[in-house]
Every structure is written in C-alpha cells, then in structure tokens.
Model the fold of this input.
Amino acid sequence: MSLLAAAGPLEPAARSFLSPTGVEIVFLLVGVAVLGAALVTVTTRQLVHAALWLVVALGGLAVEFLLLTAEFIAWVQVLIYLGSVVVLVLFGLMLTKAPIGRSPDADSGNRWAALAVGLATAGTLVTLVVDAFRTSWIDLGAGAGSAKATGEYLFRHWVLPFEALSVLLLAALVGAIVLSRRDDEGKKPRPRPGKLRAGKPVGTSSGKES
Amino acid sequence: MHLAYPAVLAALLFAIGVYGVLARRNTVLVLMSVELMLNAVNLNLVAFDVWLRDALHGGQALTLFTITLAAAEIGLGLAIVLLVFRTRRTADIDRLTALGDPAEDGPAEDDETSDATSAEAVA
Amino acid sequence: MNLALPVLVPVLPALGAVATLASGKRAPGLTRPLAILPVAASAVLALVVALQLGTGQSLDAATRLAPTGGPELSLALHLDGFSSLISVLVGLVATCVQVYSTAYLKDDPRYPSYAALVSLFTAAMFLVVYSGDLVVLLVGWEVMGICSYFLIGHHWETADARSASLKAFLVTKLGDVPFLIGIFLLGADAGTFRIEGVLKAATEGQLSHPTLTALLLLAGVAGKSAQFPLHTWLPDAMAGPTPVSALIHAATMVAAGIYLVARLLPVFLTSGAALVVLSVMAAVTMVGSALCALAQDDLKRVLAYSTVGQLGYMAGALAAGDRQAAVFHLVSHGAFKALLFLAAGVIIHAAHTNSLSAMARMPELRKKVPDAYWTMGIALIALIGLPPFSGFFSKEAVLTAAEHAATGEALTNGLGPASAVPSAAGWIVLVAAGLTALLTAAYAARLWLLAFHSAPVALTAATDAPYSAEIDEADPAHAEPPAMRWPLWVLAIPTMGFGLFGLRSDWLPALLDGGSLRPALETAVIATGLAVAGALIGYGAWRSVTARAAAAAERVPEQAGPPAAETLAPALPKPLADPGRLLLGPLFGPALHGFHVDRLYSALFVRPTLAAAQLVRFLDREVVETYVRGTGTGANLLGWAVRRSQTGNAQTYLSVLLGAVVVLTVLVAVGS
Amino acid sequence: MLTSTPLLTPLLGQPAMTPLAVADPGGLVQSVDWVAIAPPLTAALAGLVVLVADLFLKGSQKKALSWIAIGGLVLALAALLPLALDSDARSTFCLADGGCSYVADHFTLAFQLLALGGALIAALLSVHTVAADRLPGGEFWFLLLSSAAGAALLPASRDLATLVVALEVASLPAFALVALRRDGRGAEAALKFFLTSVTATAVMLLGVSFVYAATGTLHLSAIADALTVAPAQLRHLAEAGAVLTLVGFAFKTAAVPFHFWVPDTYVGAPVPVAGYLSVVGKAAGLAGLALVTTVAFRPYGHTWGLVLAVLAAVTMTAGNVAALRQRAAAPNSAVRLLAWSSVSQAGYLLVPLAAAGYADSDRPVGATVAYALVYGVVNLGAFAAVAATGHSRLDDFQGLFARNRWTALALAFFLLCLAGLPPGVVGLFGKVVVFRAAVDAGLGWLAVVMAANVVVALYYYLAWTAKLFAAGASAPARVPGPLRATLGLTAAVAVVLSVAPQLVLQVVSGSLF
Done:
C-alpha cells in the first residue's frame, strides 16, 4: 500500500543534487546556524550564555519549521520554547546559584565518554538517514500547517492523545508545585517515632523506609 | 527540497544533545541538552510529515504533543532540580551519588548523615 | 473406591502442618497431638486404601487443572501396588518419627515449626507417591526439597547445619534443573504430563530423544536419591536432628528418586545407554559408599553412607530392568534403615556423642540401651542380608534381577522386552553388588563391635564426650522415655518379618508387577557366603586391632597421656582400635573424606560461581570506579577527564544507556 | 517542487477526498465510546476529585482523601467488568478506514487489570506511609491516580502518538511521587529516574519518527501493513526505528542495560511508590513492548525477537547476580534486593515476548500477561511486607517469625512465589508457562539460561526466607491496619491463585488481540 505511496518521492525525477532552490539555501544556512548555536550551548563554560544560545538554536528551528510550511508548529515553538521554557531554564539557573561568569568545571569528567557516544550517535544516524533518503525530495507546494488545518486534524484524528495530554500537563503542574513548595513548618518532614520503630533511634535507615 | 537536509540536520542536532546530556555537569544544562534532543525529533517529524503529505498529519500532531510534553517535562524537571539543590546544596549531577550501591566493605552508615555528607565527601 | 480416602492421605498431614504452625506458641499443649494425629491418621488411611485396592489393581482419577497452552496439567491420582505399598511405609515411618520426636526434641523451643515441617514433608511425599501427573509430582518433589532444607538446618546455630542444609539444597537443585527439562521434554513428546500417557508414548516409541530424556531425568534422580556424583549432600545432612535423618534420609525422600524411576521404567527401557549409565552410577555409588562407611567415625555418617549404598542397590535393580526388586528393597530398607537411625538416636542420646571411637571407650553401653542394642542388631543383620530378615530377601531379589539381566533374560515383567536391558548393565550391577555385600557386612560388623563390644580403653573419656552435634535432645541423665523406645520395636517387626510375610504366599509380587521375587539358589548361596565372609573379616580385623591395641597399652602402661589430650584430638582416634583402618589401609584417609568429591566440586562449581559473582561485582562497581578514578597510566587526557567523575553517577548510567542504544542500532541495521 | 504523486493514497483514502475520521461525517471530533474508555477515565476523574476535595478538607479530614482515591481505583476496576463480560472487543477513536486509537480487547483488559489492581494495592499500602511520613495527601493521591490512568490508557492505545503520551502520563507523575518526601534521597532518586527516563523518551521519539518516515502512519496495524511493502531503501531506517522505539518501553520495564535507575530510585522513593513502580510501571512498559512488537513490527519479528531474547537473557542474569551480591548488613539492602529481583523478573517477562518474535504469532504474549499478573500480586505483597515491618536492611528481618508471625509467613510465601517454589505454586506455574513459551518457539538456549537463572535466584530468595525463621529479638510489633489489609489481600490473592492457577493461566490459552 504505502509502497505506491512512497515510490513517488523516492524518485530522483528531473532534479539534481546540485540545484538547490532559494528555500533550500535558506534552510541550509539556518541549519548551520542552529547546529552552531547548539554546539555552543553544550560546550560553553558560561552557563547563562548556554541558555541564550539555546534560544538561538530553538529559534532557528522555528524558522526551519516555517520553511517546511508548518506555520502553526513554528508559532507554538516560539511561544512555548522561547516564551516559557527558556525563561524557566534561566530561572532554574539562577535559583541553583549558577555562576554568572566562566565556570571552569561546567563539564563533568564524563566528557570523553560523552564525545565518543555523541560521535557514534552522529555517525550512525547520519549514515542511516543519508542511506535511506538519498533520493527523496520534499514537495513543499501544499502548505497544510496553518492554525485552522492543525485544529482540524488534531480534533479529527488525534483527540485521544490530546485529551491524555491535558492530564499530563495537570499532573506536571501539580507535581512541580508540590515539589517546589516549602513546608509550612520550614523543615523537612521527619519520620514519626512510632510503634513500628520501637527500639530504634528515630531517623535511622530503617525508619526512613516505612 | 532534498529530504536529507532536514534529516541530517536533525541527526546532528540529536547527537549534539546526546553529547550535552552526557558531558554537562550542571543539571539544568543537562535538561537543556534533552530539549535539543527532543527538538531534533520534532524537526524529523515535521519534515517527514511534509514529505509524506500525511492526510492525518500524524507527524505534526506528534510534534505538537512532543513540544507540550517537553514543556511539562522541563517544568517538573526543574522542580526536581530545585528540590535537589535545596536539600543538597548542589546542582552538579556528578555529586549526587549517595544512592549508589553502598561500598561493599564500608560500614553500614547512617542514612541521615550520608544524605548530607556524602555529597560533600566526594567533592 | 471412594476417592475421598486417597485424597485425604496427603491432605491431612498438610493441614496438620498448618495447624501445628498456627497453634505454635499460643497453645503449646496442642502441638504434639496436632503433629502426631494427622500423620497417624494418614498412615491408617494409606493402609486402608492399600487394603481396599487389593492386589493387581490400579486406580486412576484426574481433574483438569490449568490450561497452559501446551500439554495439559491435571490433578491426577494414580494408585497401584507400588504406590500403596510405599505410602504405607511412608505413613508408618512418619508416624514413628513424629512420636519419637516428641521425646527427642522435648525441650526444643522450635519444636512446633519442626513438627509442622515434618508433617508437611510427609504430605509432600504422599503427594509424590500418589500423583498421576508429572507436574504435580514435581510440586511434591520440590516441597520435600524445601522441607528437608529447613529440617537439616534445624540446628542453624551450628555452622555445620547451616552449610549442610545449603549444600543439600544446592546439590539436589543441581540435579533438579536437568530433571525439570527432562519432564518438559517428556511432556512435549507425549503431549501430556499424565504418567499413563507418558508411559503409553514410551512403549509406542513416540519419544523423540529417549536417551537424552532418560539421562536428564537421571540427573534429578541422582540428586534426590543421593547417587554418585550427586551423593555428597546426604552424609552432611546428618547435621540435622536424628529423627529427620531417619525419616528423610533413610526412608522417604531419598526413595522418591528410586520410586520415580520405577514409575517411569518403560521410558528408561527405551534407552539401553541410559540403563548402562544408571548401572555404572549404581555400581560406583555402592562400592564407593561402602568403602566410605568403613572409614567413618561418626555413627550417623556410617549409616548415611550405608543408605547411599543401599540406594545404589535399588538403582542397580532398576538398571537391570526389574522394578519389583527395587521397590521391594526400597520398602524393606526403609523399615530397617529408619530403625537403624532411630536406634542410633537412642545410642547417641545415651552416650551423648556421635563418635564411634568415643562410644568404644564407654563401658557397658549395651546395658544402658538394651532396646537399641537388640533392635540395632536385628537391623544390621537385615542390612547385611542374612536370612531370614527382610534385607536378605530384598537383596536377593536385586541380585537375581542383576543375574538375569547379565544373562540376557532381564525380568522386565512385561514392561518391555528382556532384550531392552543390555547384559553389560547386569554384569556391572552383579559384580558391584557382590563386592558391596562383602563390604557392607564388614562395616556393619565394625559398627556393631566398636559401639557395643569394645573393651573400655579409656574410662574417663566417656563422660565428657568429644563432640555432639545434637544440641537440644532429651536430657541424657534420664533413661529414654517410652516414646523413644517403642517405635524401635514397631519398626523391628517389618524388619524381621516383611520378607517372609511378603513372599510366603506371593502376596508381594501379586501386589507389584506379578513376577516372582523368590531368591534363586545360586545367588542366595553366594550372597550369603559373601555376607558371612565380610562379617568374619570385620570381626577378624576387629580382634586383631583390639589385641594390638591391648598389647600397646600394656607396653606403655601409664604413658597414654592424660585423657584430656585425647579429648583434644577426637578426630584422630589413633590409639583406638579401628578395624576400618586396618582393612582399608592407604584408602582410609580418602574414604574418611568421601574420596574428596566435595573438593572436586568446589573446584568445579563453587569457585567458578564465586568467580562469576566476583566478576559481576567487579563490573558493577570496580570498572565504573576504576574508569572514574582513572588509571593514570593511560593517556593523560583521558585520566584527567575521568578522574573528575563519580561512581553511581547518573551520567555514567546515561552513557551506558545511550551507548547501548547506538550499538544495538548499528547491530540491527548492519545485521539485517 | 515536484513529484506530486499521491502519498499514502490507498492506506488512508484518496487525498482528494476529505478523510472521514468519524462515524458521524458532520462532526468535527471523533466519536467516543464512553464505556470502553471508562477504566482510565475513572482513574483520571478520581484524581481530579481528590485534587478538588483537597481544597475543602482541613487537617484531620485529609485522611478521607485516601479513601476517595482507593474508591476511585475500585470503581475503575469495576469499569473493567462490563468490558470483560462483553465478548467482542470495543474500539473507539476510530478513523474512517477502521484504524482505531483505543481498543479494549482481552490484552487491554488484562493489562488494565494489572495496572489498576497494582495501583489499588499500592494505594492501600500508601495510606499509612502518607500519614506517617506526612506526605502532602491531596497531591500524592492525585499523582498516583493520574499515573495509574496513564498506565491504564497505555495498553489500550493503538497508535504511536497515544502510546508515547500515555507512557509519559504514566511516568511524569511517578517522578514527582518519588521525590514527594522532599528530602535529599527522594530528590536524588527522582532526578536519576527523571533524567534517564526523559533521555529514553527522546530516543524512543527518534525511533518513532523513523518508523513514521518508513511507513507514513502512526497507527500500529497500519505500520505492520506498511512495513511488509516498505521499499528496500527504507528497510534499515525502519529496523533502526523499531529498535529505538523499543528503548522507551524497555526502560520502563527495567531491562538491562536500561535498568540503572531501578535500584537507586527504589531505595530513594517511599516504599509503596517503589512497589508501584516495580509493578505498574513495569506493566506499562511491557504492554507497550508487546503492542509495538507483536502488532506494529510483526514483519520484523526475527529482528526484535533476537534483540528481546538477548535483552531477556542479559537482564535476568545481571539482575540475579547483582541480587546475589547484596550484603545483608548494608543499609536498604532489602529494598535494593527487591529492586534487583525486579530487574531479573523483567528478564523472565521478556522471554515470551521474544518468543513471539520467533513463533510468528502473538500467542506467547499470553505467557507474559499471565506471569506479569502473578508477579504483580506477589511483588507488591513483598513490598507490603517490607513496608509493614519498617525494616530496610535484610539483617533486620532476622527472626521476624518470632516477632510477627503472619507478616513473616506472608513474606515467606511471596518470596517463594517469586522464586517459583512450592507452596508458591502460582509462581512455579508462571515460570513453567514462560519456559514453555521459550521452548515452543525454539529458543532452547534462552530456556536453558532461564532455568539456570531460576536456580541461582533460589539462593537469595531462600536465604531471605530462612532469615525470617531464624531466631532473633522477639519484641512483637503491631502492623498498622491498612498495611495489614494490604498484606492480607495480596496474600489471599496469591494463595487463591496457588490453589487455582487456572484463573490466571487461562489467558495463556487464547489469543489476546
């Protein structure tokens, strides 16, 4: 069934690899910028700068979404990521008293293992997708990413996950609130001495588990 | 547009995210790297959705879900990080090892103190 | 027949176990009746069932248990002569043991759990005997294993008991794994786990790998019935209380393996190779254990090795294709070995020691325990196989079976063609059985003479015994209560009369497969001769060493050293006259240690397991740690980087996780 | 830009035609069968009720919240009944061409029973903990219920988007639950759980995107159809995508090498939450694994069959050996042992799924369901016993029988069930069923590995059991009421199943989907 479906775009057709259109050029340039910003994000020693470079990377991605005709997603990306996620992250950095300047120990000792795994991931994934998509082309003609179209497909076909997501959001909200709320007594709850722990000092390891 | 462009971009972005998750010491930065990984997936999904001209727009729908999910995750994740910071006075991921398998030959230490001290002890 | 009766037989002791445990400390007065009555009732019921069934009958009933998708499981009952006979034996011995235990463990604070475990054990044995379904049988089989683990470890305060119980468990489990696989193979081939169905498939030749299946089953049998090379747990299991040894390690649990082979004999008859393996196993077990028995100083270990050897006889009979003889010997052995153990318990209780050499120093031990003295004598004669006690007839049956098998006319009694049994198996069993008869008589004589007839060499050593494995037995200052004495005489009755009674009117063969069990003249003469010769050799050796010891004692009259020196080195009864040492010569040392099979095991199994665990621990922590700390000899850069990381680090976890994902992806993408 | 060949035409209808996703063509949203979605919906609504009630209840009245939550879970379980009595599978949230997002068939019901029943037992277990550790009640119950709703939604999901979202609904509240004691240990445990989980989710989403690229759809059955005809060029991508998709679920199932979070998290979390994760979390992961493998990736059966078989072997071995190395005197050794034991049990649970890859049918999945049900009951029972005693070191269990007869007996029974030894007959049967599945599928080597592991595992289960009956201090301790109820309930279920294992084993016989 989808053989027929997929056969079309797999055809190289009349296009050659070397005749990029304007959209493609823009896409590539923005892509390079995104990659660069992402790289700086994960390597910079200035923690706050990392958050700002993340903004650049995510904003660049919003542009890519626009170029791929997914308007609504691009706006959501801007709203949610740039509007709230990055702000949250900055708050997080400040509340954990992250140093403002260069911090020499921004990377953990795991860095070389990380480099190895990261390179292996990149190699594997790039090989996979290049191998799979070497002859595939996107037809950007019909834009189906407007807000109206999005609402239609969401409510026509994806009602169930959408509803489940509302539970998820509420749960995350409640969880985040309860975890960041300080206790009224201003101290951590101590295990209550009780019959269960008879004969043991309160707060020993066994007490903690019950 | 050649489909390999967004796909390769996504693959590289994902790999950068993987590197960040594994290499960053501050937990907030690790969370940021996770966001990079998720965004790579989003780019993939949108590109495939457009390429496939999916009538159901499964890719775009899932992208929206993923964005929401990432927002929820980062909210809760930051709450956890703050909680860790409040109780341990650190947000460095490699200092949070109190729950590792206890040293085989070490004495059975009191948990209450190990909570507070082991983070410092390893510093 | 009313099905309720046979169903009640295993159920009653199980309920009794629960009740005993539940009453426990709350109603200590109830514990003893709750321990004895259900088991006794089961014994009576088992007898009633056996009588109702009569000879030459069999009964099958089944209810479907659980659809597992493959072969069906059913709760099946199978009654025939074999099962009813063995169930009566189990009931009798279990009742005697429960009664005996009330006195033997009178002051034990853990008596309720002990009694409950014995009851549960009895229930499990009944389940094994009555089950018509292999999986249900397996359940009973495993319950027995667990109970025996706990019972052997009853004196868990002592390191001996702890290690012995663990060893018993692990060794039998080592056999149970192949056994389990064997049962599944049988079930898969036959399409059912019902024993009838399996046997039908076997006789019709539907088994795809008969030899493999039979060998897998044999591994389990070797574990449970303590056959070489999995016999090592049984002598160690004597760390448990003596009544437990009598019940589990003489009469019932070890018999389960033999019983299972007897039930599944048609399966084994489809594979000549398996029979030869079985015969070799039996032969090695018989001869080896008899040699070991000759060297042991611990009374209970002598009996334990003797049990191993007699189980070898039964296995030999099975290898010769005659399950009647095997079950005959099983039953008579069950009676006299239980008697031997219970009598040994009385002796140990009176002498307050397990050591034969210590007993030898005691004056007038036989006067102190007249009941034990006489009943033990009877049981030893039965063990040696002298007429007219039961052991004679059953051992003759085994020898006759082996002889027929050797000449190519095996007594399979219609279970399969006589040609199914290779004559080599018969020869192996016959020769080994003859040799073992000689050795058995020798060690029995040694045991008897050392324990009761030694001249009191060192009078003072008698009161403070060198060691005693029993901690909480009845007070040695008092004579044995009747509850410890009369079970001896109850068991002495079948020991003396079972053979005669069973064969008098051919009642026993009719109950079993129907072939004759009467002794043949030649084998009877040869075996009796061997037994008498063995006993005489034992006696002669004993005389010789006693005389030599007496001479040595005269030569150095008062220089034997203070008695305290002897009690310090009880394991080396050097100055004492041990005929075993004389008879075995250079073999004595190895035989004393069971020919070092244990050490072999530790090299073969225990150490690799420990090493594997070590390796995993190494991977678990050390690799991460080393990785984290850095070796310093590697590239500087690497060392610098990894030194900063920490163990138990979430990033290490993530590295492994993501690394594994990459590897998996590459493997799948490349491999496809 | 070019090639306007219609995509996915046959699969989803002509592109020219507006896809009719609804029974009612005029409506904008899909129609909903409320009876079918009642079980997860009830749990979610009960969560809302708790949250609202929390606002109005003061101080000592907060105790009522726990009973609202438990009542909600009982109702959710009751909502399974009409579905179970209905012999036909119900589907809802369907597309015009028949692909549905939510299907309530036997597979779904069995896993919903496990998820909701496990959540109920964990909730009973938590009643005491919430009070004793002064956890914030309203939030605790809300989070537990929403997580349970996610776990109940997951087995019913039949498209990857819903699966992903349901998995997250089950996971996210669990992170908060772990951290809810708000001390250093809980926070660290939650952080490790969270980080590894979101990473695994990201990997899984990448896999989903590859599968989507290769097949053009997110609905499981459509994926299976599309994979059989996928162009050769996309095959590598599809297989890699399939493997990556499995990662997220394997993580929840705690399969090695995705298990690292398990011991740390269980130790740091409150005991009932650890029990909840070990059963409900695992159930969610298993349901997802079973769905994507046997339904969606059926054409690649041998690939993932092999992957799962290797994972199963490694998982059971690693879990067992690590459990073997637990030192009885170390702090938290009891929970840590249960954690490693749950890792090794995950290995057994994966065996039939691997077998399903080789058997070319989904029949072996029944064995996983049966074993998971058995495991759920006895494992929660073991956690309940640990919670009831309040001990966290194995050494503290020495002589428990003398102090607390019934708790010790129950714990011994659960441990024997986990070990698969009589009288824990149901554990034995569970293992037999799993073993059979492996043998039937021709995975002889895996069966051997499993048999060896079962034997190795006996050691630590029995060592613990033996400890219970050893002598020790004998100051009798009282067990709080809810904990007693939980212990009684789990023990009763385990005993009933041991007497009549066919109650649970019957799921093995039929086809589940």
